[in-house]
Amino acid sequence: MSFNFPPPPPPKQKEPPKEFNFPTPPPPKQKEEPKQFNFPVPESNEIAYRYTSKEAESLFSRAGKRTFEEAMELLSNVERIMAGEDIIASLQEKYADKEKKMKPDLNTLNEVIRVVEKKVANKKDEDYFNEELGKAEAGGNEDKIRGLKIALDVFRAMTAPRPWGEGSLIHLPPEGKAIAIGDIHGHPDCLRKILDESKAIERIKSGEKLFLVFLGDYIDRAKPADSGDAAVLEAILELKHRFADNVILLMGNHETMHVKFSAANLEEVKKEFDKRGATVESEQRITNGWIIRWKDRETGERAMRLALEKPGGGVDVFGESSSPHDFPESMGKHFQDKGGDAYGRYMQFFKTLPIAAVSHNGVLLLHAGIAKGMESVKDLVNPTPEVEFQVLWNDPWDCWHLPNGAKFALSDRDGRRGTIFYFSEAAVSEFFAKAGLKALVRSHQQQNLVWNLLASLTSTDYDTPNIAYLEFDLKKEIADAKDLDPGLKEIASWH
Ligand SMILES: [Mn+2]
Question: How many CB atoms lie within 10 A of CB 14?
């Protein structure tokens, strides 16, 4: 993949305020500097783009079209796989049909697995199976050929380097390629274009060691509003179900936000609203949570944002028209009377998502940013609520260098003063030196940029799939983020 954009003009360097009132700097004004992010964006994806990937097409043929029961069954299957029920289960699923046809020498898949396990234990290599397969082919024994082909597949699957989870942190395999995918936000067309353009499914099916790392924010701000969230969730779940080892789903702030809401106590929620002067008009019970409607939407929205103050323990509230937090509503529109149940089940799932992935060549992938107080990647294994909150919410300071060499500064992004931090190059640099890292890949904002240590992928809720993903090699040694993909250097040159 390469980014063929004209090099953008050099940015306007912002002067730091003369009397910098640390630790509450003014928020960056990204929206007022469109020249920095002047990439060509197709006017309409659906019209401008001709899909070519049959695999992506087939993935989306059912996405968002399942009944409630079908969607929840898919979710349960994925939960089972993610709970560590391992490769054997997914192989059994994969070969369920073929197993029925297997006969004499290797007559059940379980027997194949047992034989392969022995070979793995005895450190036999792939040549053993290739030799046996050669003999069977020479002998023309179709049953044996079929069984050995499956055995070879099983052997490869059991001996291949796989990503592994350590608490909330995923360790990527030491070789292969990774594609980091930024916020999808309920835009199935954007996800489809990414899968189409990268040929990811075809490549995984052909045996390429390719890992898709989704950086979170699958939901909210959907397009179409009534089915986009369901379609994206079903597509990523089907991907995870079919290619459990190749698909990594990280948590974003939108997932955690809804989880926090679904765990909130209604009386506590109302108290938070009262404190902030927002009047609750009505409340509707849904599974594991509530949809609150307030009289004055603006005051309600403000109250909602302020209610996020307490990391890990705060309350979060969603109003009837509370875009960009409209996932409960979109589930209601899509599954009607089952919408609340679907919402509740997805909340259970979101709670289990890891928050970061790390590669052997020093790339750290997460939704938003590094956290104040983090000393090593081990702090992501079982993160404190504060670290987890910041990983999902923090932003890079838009000039990258905070005044006076500061590493972190409190942010008041969206009025959430007190818990979100801006981080500077100095912060990343210091953390990377301790942690042995080279590049941070994150998304979370409407900007696409590469600085020396940071690659930020724009959110697809602005219909920009072509710059919302980044492919890189997991083995190649890199010095910094600019080495992740040669095409990115062009973008990097302006800063
Ligand atoms: Mn986000």
Answer: 13
CA 477 – ligand 1 centroid, Å:
29
CA of 388 to the centre of ligand 1 (A): 13
**Helix 327-335 vs helix 253-263: crossing angle, to nearest 10:** 80
From the CA of 216, how far away is ligand 1's center (Å)? 7
Q: In degrees rounded to 5, what are phi and psi of residue 366?
A: -160, 175
Ranking 5-19, 166-180, 356-370, 480-494 by mean pLDDT, the lowest is 5-19
Separation of CA 96 from chain center: 29
Distance of CA 445 from the midpoint of ligand 1 (Å): 7
The rounded Å distance from CA 276 to ligand 1 centre is 25
| Residue 15 neighbours by CB distance under 10 Å | 8
CA of 327 to the centre of ligand 1 (A): 14
Nearest residue to 367 (alpha-carbon basis) of 440, 314, 308: 440
Residues lining ligand 1 (ion), CB within 5 A?
Answer: 217, 252-253, 444
Distance between terminal CA atoms of the chain?
22
The pLDDT value recorded for residue 380 is: 96
pLDDT at 107: 57
pLDDT digits (tens, 9 = 90+) for 442-471: 999 888 888 889 999 988 877 788 778 999
Ligand 1 centre to CA of 116 (Å) is 43
**CA 446 – ligand 1 centroid, Å:** 9
Q: Is the Cβ–Cβ distance between 211 and 179 less than 8 Å?
A: yes
In the predicted structure, residue 25 carries a pLDDT above the cut 80: no
Q: Tokens for 103, please give them.
A: 């006969």
Of 359, 46, 56, nearest in space to 200 by CA: 56
Beta strand ranges found along 176-297 (DSSP E): 177-181, 210-214, 247-249, 280-286, 289-294
Confidence of residue 158 (pLDDT cuts 50, 70, 90): confident
Residue 30 binned pLDDT confidence (cut-offs 50, 70, 90): very low
Residue 329 Cα to ligand 1 middle (Å): 19
| pLDDT for res 450 | 81
* Domains within the chain, CATH numbers bracketed: 44-81+164-252+353-492 (3.60.21.10), 86-159 (no CATH), 255-351 (no CATH)
Distance CA(164)–CA(11), nearest Å, equals 40
What is the 309 CA–ligand 1 centroid distance (Å)? 16
